């Protein structure tokens, strides 16, 4: 799942981003409305955590443009205003959910994950294939009953492959779903992560390389 955090308070933005990354989510950060709109043009996001009171372009306008462009991005709006009328106004302009500040991080995480499920194929929280069991709610994985101790990136890559249900996932799609924005090193990073993941999954090999196409989970 890919998330865009739009928050002008740098400390809060990084706190949210790091917390979400610990859940194996790919997270980008924007510090104002203009930067958020540029990132939305350049990449696809499942969820946007959007502060309402932004410099540059107001959060309300960012939300309106997301709705007008018919993006699949779900919007969780944050604001210091806790009045019911403020929450209603945010939802009426197109936000999918609303969370007043100050908030409890666990609640924010639960809301982000719930919104993200709306943009992903409808699959149960526990996915099984080829002896691999992936519990996306508890963030645990095993193969043939043997626990797999995966890094955040390894878990994200495995989840992306498992959700494809045997279909080929391209290198670009893996980057889109499992990594934050960057450019130069990602192709090699995918190879390294897949190599480590394959070693942890053990034999017989289950992650197949499809030449000039990508990767898939075998039967």
TrEMBL record:
Coiled-coil annotated residue ranges, if any: none
DNA-binding annotation, residue ranges on this chain: 124-219
UniProt KW keywords: DNA-binding, Phosphoprotein
Residue ranges constituting the OmpR/PhoB-type domain according to the UniProt record: 124-219
Keyword check for Transcription regulation: no
Pfam families assigned: Response_reg, Trans_reg_C
PROSITE patterns in alphabetical order: OMPR_PHOB (PS51755), RESPONSE_REGULATORY (PS50110)
Domain Response regulatory: 2-116
Modification type 4-aspartylphosphate: residues: 51
PANTHER family: REGULATOR OF RPOS (PTHR48111), TRANSCRIPTIONAL REGULATORY PROTEIN CUTR (PTHR48111:SF36)
Protein name: Response regulator transcription factor
């Amino acid at each position: 799942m890919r998330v865009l955090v739009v928050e002008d308070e740098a400390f809060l933005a990084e706190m949210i981003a790091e917390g979400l990354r610990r859940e194996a989510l790919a997270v980008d950060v924007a510090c104002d409305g203009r930067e958020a709109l540029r990132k939305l043009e350049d990449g696809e996001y499942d969820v946007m955590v959007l502060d309402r009171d932004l410099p540059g372009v107001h959060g309300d306008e960012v939300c309106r443009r997301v709705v007008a462009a018919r993006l699949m991005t779900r919007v969780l709006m944050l604001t210091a205003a806790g009045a019911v009328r403020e929450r209603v106004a945010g939802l009426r302009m197109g936000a999918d959910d609303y969370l007043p500040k100050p908030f409890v991080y666990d609640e924010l995480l639960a809301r982000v994950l719930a919104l993200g499920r709306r943009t992903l194929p409808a699959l149960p929280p526990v996915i099984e294939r080829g002896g691999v069991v992936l519990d996306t709610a508890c963030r645990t994985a095993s193969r043939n009953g043997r626990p797999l101790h995966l890094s955040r990136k390894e878990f994200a890559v495995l989840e992306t492959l498992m959700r494809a249900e045997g279909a080929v996932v391209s290198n670009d799609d893996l980057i889109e779903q499992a990594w934050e924005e960057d450019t130069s090193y990602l192709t090699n990073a995918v190879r390294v992560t897949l190599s480590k993941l394959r070693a942890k999954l053990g034999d017989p090999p289950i992650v197949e390389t499809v030449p000039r196409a990508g990767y898939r989970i075998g039967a």
